[in-house]
Design brief:
3 domains, SH3 type barrels, transmembrane, elongated, six-stranded antiparallel sheet, 330 residues
Length: 330
């Protein structure tokens, strides 16, 4: 709304300006030059013979621009300050695929970094931060020993603390909220170049917070404690590989699997219903069970045995990295 008023006002001002110049071309050179270079000044001049129509159009344009600017200052003062400072375009984002909301406000982080034990997602320009989301691992470092974190709202134990910050207006302090429970988090670090880590995040908070974040995490410099972990992993990796190779001969043959098309399953789920499948998520977790029909919200339903009972897991198609079907020998 504010941008539309400003653009419409600018258009009206330019149109009135051009109209005034054309209308004064047959008058004296001084009046034409004044209209050409200082047309808004003619709004203050009376009895100079300038036509009323173009001047009224310029006045409407100026008023529309002022009103739009006032609304923009009231609703988005941070953006006004950026424009006044010469930042006409947003800084390029650190990860184009990463997006979400914080307390209902659009959130596109363009700075992602490790700050000590904290994984920080920030949106801002220069030193100014408009919105940020921080995942604090200070009391839960052990969660990243396997390079992935999977949490459901009902899970208990030690989990990261979330810190939300957002802009609330020109005359008030930025909003701040700490979340310690009732959120779901899927955080997968797939690695990167030496000394770096990259991955993917899916974060959802209860509806009352209107906050979520999903997408790819670009390569980041590892914090010191993760660097030390990587070094220790390297020292123990070779013995594990050798032990696995020695035990491979005594392991019974694994079943054969063939990869399925996720799009085909979504288009014709009845063709695959009842198949034994192995499903791998982007977080690296693998689930094996019997495929059921799609749920009402178009999620894949996988039935897993749990002793004498059976549980059903629902998976959003965007969370599935690979799905395979067990080949039954004939």
């Amino acid at each position: 709304m504010e941008a539309l008023m400003i653009l419409a006002g600018a258009g009206a001002l330019v149109a009135g300006w051009v109209w005034l110049v054309v209308a004064t071309m047959r008058r004296s050179v001084s009046k034409m030059l004044l209209a050409l270079f200082f047309a808004p000044l003619t709004l203050l001049l009376r009895g100079m013979g300038y036509p009323l129509g173009p001047r009224l159009l310029m006045l409407v344009g100026i008023l529309a621009m002022v009103a739009g600017g006032a609304l923009l200052q009231q609703r988005h003062p941070d953006r006004v300050q950026e424009l006044l400072a010469g930042h006409w375009l947003d800084e390029p984002g650190a990860a184009e695929d990463l997006r979400g909301t914080i307390m209902g406000q659009p959130f596109r982080p363009n700075r992602i970094l490790w700050r000590g034990d904290d994984l920080v997602f920030e949106e801002g320009t220069g030193d100014r931060v408009r919105r940020s989301l921080t995942i604090r691992f200070g009391n839960a470092r052990e969660l990243l020993l396997e390079y992935s974190v999977e949490r459901l709202p009902s899970d208990e134990g030690l989990w990261p603390e979330l810190v939300l910050q957002w802009h609330t207006g020109a005359l008030s302090e930025p909003g701040l909220r700490r979340i310690t429970d009732n959120y779901s988090l899927s955080l997968d670090f797939r690695g990167g170049q030496q000394g770096q880590t990259a991955g993917r995040i899916h974060l959802h908070l209860p509806t009352i917070h209107s906050t979520w974040l999903t997408g790819e995490i670009p390569p980041l410099t590892l914090p010191q404690w993760m660097t030390e972990r990587s070094r220790s992993d390297t020292l123990v990796l070779q013995p594990r590989v050798e032990a696995a190779a020695r035990s491979a001969q005594s392991v019974r043959p694994v079943p054969a699997w063939r990869e399925l098309s996720l799009l085909a399953m979504l288009d014709e789920p009845e063709l695959f219903s009842g198949s034994v499948v192995r499903l791998t998520t982007w977080s690296g977790r693998t689930h094996e069970g019997v495929l059921k029909q799609l749920s009402e919200d178009k999620r894949l339903v996988l039935a897993l045995p749990r002793g004498a009972d059976q549980v059903e897991l629902h998976f959003h198609p965007l969370d599935i990295r690979q799905i395979e079907e067990r080949i039954t020998p004939r």
